[in-house]
Amino acid sequence: MRRTLAHLLTTRYSLRRRFPPATLAAIEAAIAAAEREHAGEIRFAIETCLDLRRLWGRWAARTRAGEVFAQLRVWDTAGRNGVLIYLLLADRNIEIVADRGYADRVTPAEWQAVCAAMEAEFRAGRFEAGAVAGVRAVAALAARHFPPLPGDRNELPDPPELIR
């Protein structure tokens, strides 16, 4: 019941308050700068809340993150090196979904460390700092395994995706 209430009370206003245009611009700039350091691609998606069908179906944020990964076509990169940072605001849950190129290179514990660092900043009310730190941490992992290539192009959009 508590989760349902949280999803019903988390509105677009909640999203705008925590992620105003300046914060969204800072996230976009961090992604653009990070992608110059490696050949990977980073997407950042913020979903305000789940719709009732998913909520009553007891969807986990991880399940929804996988769906958003596919919808945003993060998998559609030449090197199979796309990464989605997904925030479900109502649950205050962060998930990272990485394409197959990372499978044997980055451990779940490394991804979880990025999420934990972001969550700590968010709990302190520092949403911009947490989001930018998350992008930089993902970029560091990407740079370790996918160094920049000559002629590399930006395959995915840099602005954060706002969902509902």
Element order: H for helix, E for strand: HHHEHHEEHHE
Please give the domain count.
1
* C-alpha end-to-end distance: 21 Å
Biggest β-sheet: strands ordered side by side in the sheet: 3-2-1-4
Poorly predicted sequence stretches spanning 5 or more consecutive residues = none
CATH class: Alpha Beta
Structural class: alpha/beta
- Averaged pLDDT: 93
Strand runs, count: 4
Strand content: 5-15%
Q: Counting H and I runs of at least 4 residues, what is the number of helices?
A: 7
Q: Assign the CATH topology.
A: Diaminopimelate Epimerase, Chain A, domain 1
Give the overall shape, derived from the CA principal axes: globular
State the CATH architecture: Roll
Could you characterize the architecture of this molecule?
There is one protein chain. With 164 residues, this protein is of the alpha/beta class. It has one domain: Diaminopimelate Epimerase, Chain A, domain 1. Helices cover 49% and strands 14% of the residues. The chain has helices at 2-9, 12-18, 21-34, 52-56, 61-71, 108-123, 127-145, and strands at residues 41-47, 82-88, 93-98, 161-163. Strands 3-2-1-4 form a four-stranded mixed beta sheet, with helices on both faces. Strand 2 (82-88) and strand 3 form a beta hairpin. Helix 6 runs antiparallel to helix 7. The mean pLDDT is 93.
